């Protein structure tokens, strides 16, 4: 054999080996990149699916609020205008008893999600300047008495319109010495803005998350005793809350006078005005169960005044986050469905 041809054949073989090795390296690199990218793409796809489901459930709840009667504590799905669940013999037009979608934040199952609807008027308004009620609610979420009193005073000074300092509170000079932005001395528009008040940044994460679920910064409105969670009632009414809770389990309260007769409470509690009807703002939380924990999507539905260009709108949407409550499918009833809509 010609030595030159033999050497050429050896070069070709070596070149082929190098090409194969190079292609293998490229393919391995691409495979690794794809394997690293797949979890991100999968997470993105799951987030998009959760967002789609959350928007669909929000539309269902909005439809119920707009088309079904709203009683003191709930949406009466299948009810008729003017009815309340205090009437034991209430029947729908079809002869069936209406189903209640309670507006007190309890959970309902809807497919792969858990949904809760909370009348914001049933939550403690952080702008109320009711120090005793706010301190009581802080204690309900695990803050000790002295700290709870200081935080309540600080937030009341933060949102009031004067520069006077409450005992245990804080105003301008204290904020300047602490290198903090001065108190705005006006109502906050988001409950998370309370973290700007002196001392609130030290509130523990668990206590803070629980407090956010029980409080609101919506425009001032009366506290709806029919939709207020038990911790809020205890914070405002103290021991008298148990009497009210027992009564409303049987039927909703119909008047502030009725609640006054039951508890001996005034129609206002040093800043918190007591009421028995829902407001115009509703908080919707959709939770999705996962292998570890859950994910939550929160939004706020505001019913517009009569004659407005649109009947409702959304605001203060909270980004998706890790759920602090968990999606308990086994402990919830199905979300009521309007007869005007086909089941999903």
How would you characterize this protein structure?
With 344 residues, this protein is an alpha/beta fold. The chain has 8 helices and 13 strands. The chain has helices at residues 3-67, 131-140, 145-159, 172-177, 205-214, 230-237, 241-250, 256-263, and strands at 74-77, 99-102, 104-110, 113-119, 124-125, 215-216, 223-224, 268-269, 272-275, 281-289, 294-303, 312-322, 333-334. The protein is globular, with a radius of gyration of 29 Å.
Comma- or semicolon-separated keywords:
344 residues; alpha/beta; six-stranded mixed β-sheet; three-stranded mixed β-sheet; disordered N terminus
Question: Can you summarize this structure?
Answer:
With 344 residues, this protein is an alpha/beta fold. The chain has helices spanning 3-67, 131-140, 145-159, 172-177, 205-214, 230-237, 241-250, 256-263, and strands at 74-77, 99-102, 104-110, 113-119, 124-125, 215-216, 223-224, 268-269, 272-275, 281-289, 294-303, 312-322, 333-334.
Q: What is the residue-mean pLDDT, rounded to a whole number? A: 80
Q: What class, by secondary structure content?
A: alpha/beta
Task: State the assembly state of the protein chains.
Answer: single chain
What is the helical fraction, as a range of percent?
25-40%
How is this fold's topology laid out?
Elements: H1 3-67, E1 74-77, E2 99-102, E3 104-110, E4 113-119, E5 124-125, H2 131-140, H3 145-159, H4 172-177, H5 205-214, E6 215-216, E7 223-224, H6 230-237, H7 241-250, H8 256-263, E8 268-269, E9 272-275, E10 281-289, E11 294-303, E12 312-322, E13 333-334
Parallel strand pairs: 3-13, 5-6, 7-9
Antiparallel strand pairs: 1-2, 3-4, 4-10, 8-9, 10-11, 11-12
């Amino acid at each position: 054999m010609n030595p030159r041809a033999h050497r050429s054949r050896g070069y070709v073989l070596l070149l082929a080996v190098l090409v194969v090795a190079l292609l293998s390296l490229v393919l391995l690199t691409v495979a690794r990149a794809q394997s690293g990218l797949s979890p991100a793409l999968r997470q993105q796809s799951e987030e998009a699916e959760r967002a789609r489901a959350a928007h669909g459930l929000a539309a269902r709840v909005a439809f119920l609020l707009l088309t079904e009667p709203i009683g003191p504590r709930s949406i009466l799905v299948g009810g008729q205008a003017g009815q309340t669940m205090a009437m034991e013999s209430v029947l729908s037009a079809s002869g069936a008893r209406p189903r209640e979608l309670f507006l007190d934040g309890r959970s309902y199952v809807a497919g792969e999600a858990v949904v809760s609807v909370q009348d914001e008027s049933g939550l403690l308004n952080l702008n109320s300047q009711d120090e005793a009620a706010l301190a009581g609610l802080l204690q309900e979420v695990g803050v000790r008495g002295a700290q709870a009193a200081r935080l309540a005073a600080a937030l009341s000074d933060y949102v009031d319109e004067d520069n006077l300092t409450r005992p245990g509170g804080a105003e301008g000079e204290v904020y300047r010495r602490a290198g903090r932005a001065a108190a705005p001395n006006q109502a906050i528009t988001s409950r998370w803005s309370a973290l700007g008040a002196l001392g609130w940044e030290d509130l523990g994460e668990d206590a803070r998350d629980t407090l956010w679920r029980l409080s609101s910064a919506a425009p001032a409105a009366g506290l709806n005793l029919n939709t207020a969670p038990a911790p809020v009632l205890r914070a405002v009414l103290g021991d008298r809350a148990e009497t009210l809770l027992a009564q409303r389990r049987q039927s909703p309260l119909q008047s502030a006078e009725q609640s006054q007769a039951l508890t001996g409470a005034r129609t206002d509690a040093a800043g918190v005005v007591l009421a028995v009807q829902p407001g115009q703002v509703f908080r919707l939380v959709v939770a999705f169960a996962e292998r570890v924990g859950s994910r939550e999507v929160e939004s706020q539905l505001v019913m517009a005044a009569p004659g407005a260009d649109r009947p409702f709108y959304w605001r203060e949407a909270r980004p998706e986050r890790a759920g602090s409550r968990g999606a308990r499918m086994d402990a919830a009833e199905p979300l009521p469905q309007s007869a005007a809509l086909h089941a999903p």
